[in-house]
Every structure is written in C-alpha cells, then in structure tokens.
Amino acid sequence: MSYSESVHADVVAKVEVAIIGAGYAGLSAALSLVDAGIETIVLEGSDRVGGRTLSEVRPTGVVVDHGGQWVGPTQTRLLALANRFGVETFPTYWAGDHLEIWADSRVNRYRGAGPDEGDGLHEYEEHITVLDALASTIDLQNPPASPGADLLDDESVASYLRREVPNEGARRRFALAVEGVWACEPGHVSMLHFLFYIAAAGSFDELMETDGCAQDSRFVGGAQAPAIAAAAYLGDRVRLGHRADRVVVHDDGVLIETTGGVVRADRLIVTLPPQAAGALRFDPPLPPAKARFVDRSVMGDVAKVHVTYPEPFWRAEGLSGQATIYDERETGVVFDNSPNDASSGVLVAFVYGRRVDPWATLDADARRASILATLTELFGARAQEPIDYVEKIWSIDPWIRGAYAANPTPGAWTAYGEKGWRRPTGRIHWAGSETSSVWNGYIDGAIASGQRAAQEILDRRA
C-alpha cells in the first residue's frame, strides 16, 4: 500500500516535518525549522513542555526545579535561547564554607572548589589530569572511531579505577562523581562513554564545579521557563496530549499515529529519551544497529528533594549550603537552591544511582525523615523544621523513565554506535541530549541536537 492510499479521515495535520517530543531538543528543532519557513508540528504525549526540566511554583510561592536547572558560561545555546525569550539568570549561591561528610562520618568544612586536605584528595586531583588527557583523544563526532575505543568500551569505570587509582579515598571520590553526573554506578558505564562525556563538556572540572562551570547559574522562573516561552512562540504547532504510538514509513512520507489522531509528514524527528523511543512501534522496524543502541542505552536513576525554610539560615552561619556525602546514606549531594532574593531558604538533596531504589521503596514519611536527618546533621536543628518538602523520583516518571540521561552499556558504543547513535534512518532523524557531541546529557546538548537534526533536513532541501 502506498503512503497516499494509507491516509484516512483521521489525519489531523499534514506538514513537512513532524517532531516527537516537546523537550528542549524538540522545541529547538522546531524553532530552527519554523525560522527557516518549514511547516512543522511538535507532538507531545504529556500535558506540558520541557522534557527533563520541570519547574513548579510551590504553595510557599517558591519556584523549584525538579529536573535540570543549571547553566554554565560555555553552554552558549541554552543561554542564547534564554536571551531570545527574555529569561534571565542569576548565579548559584556558593559563598561560605562547603561541607563534606566522609565515610567515617567526619564532617569537614572548606572553601573554594575543593578542600585542601581529605582522604584521597591529592590522588583524586592528580588523576583528573590523566582523565582530561584521555578524554582529549575521543572523537566527538564518532566515539567508536576513537583510538583504543574497543578496549575503552569493554572496560567499566569501576574496573579502571580499581586498576589505575590505588587509593581507596580517591576511588570513593570518583564514585560519587559518577553517581552525581551520570546518575549510575561506576560499574554501569564504560570508559569510552565516560571519556566522551567529559570531552563533550570540555573537561572533568567543567562537569563537577560551580563557579564558571556547569553549575554556575540558574534561571529566574526556573529552567523550564525558556521551553515554555519557546512553546508559546510556536503556538498551536505544539500539540500536547498527542502521544505517539506508531510510526509508519512509506516511500513518500511518514505517518505518526497518536492519541490525538494521525499526522502526515515528509520527515520525522524523534527526540525522546532512548527508552521512551524504544517503546514506539516502527513499521518497518528500525535497523538492527539503531534498535540495539536504543535498547542498550539505559537511563540513570535520580531523585531530587527540595526542602524549604523561612530563610536560608545556614548563610548566617557561614555555610554555602553545598555538601558532598561519601558514606552510605541516601543522599550524595546538597545545594542551596534558594530564590535569588533569599526570600526563603531552599536546600535540594540528590539521591543517585543504587541509592534510589531502597530509598524510593520507603513510605513517604520514612523518605522525608531520612533526608531531614542528613540535613540536620549538616546544618543543625533548624533543618528539622521545614515549611515545605517535595520530591521528584525520575525513574518512575512515565514519560522520561529516568534521568538525567541514558548511558550506553559497556560494549554498546563500539558494537552499534557508528550506525545506531544518531545517523538518520531513512526519513527519520534523531535528536535528544544523548545524541549531542557537545554537553551530552545536558539541556545545552539537547538544544544542539535539535538544531543539528533540523539542519540535516534543511541540507536535504538545499
């Protein structure tokens, strides 16, 4: 049956390009195409835009970011999008002493990017230089083509650290770094992907640090604000509540079957996280390399907990609100997430990787009690009496199915990555933060991926 013969009365739109997913990748692709005069529609299954960003105004009036929230100075695409729609930023608060709880429950205070002393600290800092040098060899456009890619992809970060970093304290620091940035355990990510991710950000410190790095600034109104503004600009081209279930590709076009009807397009951009994309039905089926790469790209596990107080009381005590925790409790990192005017105090605690499931299976009161116990140990008795508490467990989100990003399992890059990573499959183009060569896994990477996919279509029309 030809494409035209399969179009029925339930076709709700006929456009040149359809986009599945109204996160930053889908919205940026749509903006690029609409700006070029291309008739475009964005199909989003949920009732909101923004994907892995989610900003909520709490009953206290405070805006909290349940998902991605920060922007750094080298994330120029995100900054440009915010500037286009008049969304302002403000610096992350990090003045004062930071805290770390070590494996033996010692609490250390320090200032600046890191402590001067601590278990394994010097070995950790020395090996960051080694990792940056290794990351500089990675081919950002085709990671499997990097020197030694087969060996790097066969080895997990955990096995590498056991061999190359003999100091246990240094290995513990790297393990928390992997949990915090990749939202998984060191044994679940290959060295090739680890180094690629570092290279895509520019350096290891770019990923980890605050001032001038990935956690430098936040958005007035929350990180979802630029996405909401972009969707408003696109208007009725963005269709919420249109969950894509099936994609049928013909010689002369694509049909996307959604809960809101069938959309007909010449080309399609899929921007969903890999595991959500894998739930779509494709007719004909995706090429084996693409299907396998999607299957073996596993979303991280993370939960964010925001705890609000009448004021950021820790600041008066000389504390920044930032803490890193190296023992086995539920949370690994804490930040001051207060509004820019300090009209209230907000601490955000992250639960990562293997810690998520045992914590998430507790009842709500027990989860809350465990978080407040840690905050009380860090910041004193006032931390026990918040005026608001809210949590977001991303692994049970039906649309995203985890966060922050998907990590290919060891061996997946070299087995399937060259053909399965982001190469168009006929009339289908692929975007999403996981497909970006810059700031992979971040909002900026999502925007870059959407712009790349749009350019692929524009180049075909030239």
UniProtKB/TrEMBL annotation:
<protein>
    <submittedName>
        <fullName>Putative flavin-containing amine oxidase</fullName>
    </submittedName>
</protein>
<dbReference type="GO" id="GO:0016491">
    <property type="term" value="F:oxidoreductase activity"/>
</dbReference>
<feature type="binding site">
    <location>
        <position position="350"/>
    </location>
    <ligand>
        <name>substrate</name>
    </ligand>
</feature>
<dbReference type="InterPro" id="IPR001613">
    <property type="entry name" value="Flavin_amine_oxidase"/>
</dbReference>
<comment type="similarity">
    <text>Belongs to the flavin monoamine oxidase family.</text>
</comment>
<feature type="binding site">
    <location>
        <position position="434"/>
    </location>
    <ligand>
        <name>FAD</name>
    </ligand>
</feature>
<dbReference type="InterPro" id="IPR050703">
    <property type="entry name" value="Flavin_MAO"/>
</dbReference>
<dbReference type="InterPro" id="IPR002937">
    <property type="entry name" value="Amino_oxidase"/>
</dbReference>
<dbReference type="InterPro" id="IPR036188">
    <property type="entry name" value="FAD/NAD-bd_sf"/>
</dbReference>
<feature type="domain" description="Amine oxidase">
    <location>
        <begin position="25"/>
        <end position="458"/>
    </location>
</feature>
<keyword id="KW-0560">Oxidoreductase</keyword>
<dbReference type="Pfam" id="PF01593">
    <property type="entry name" value="Amino_oxidase"/>
</dbReference>
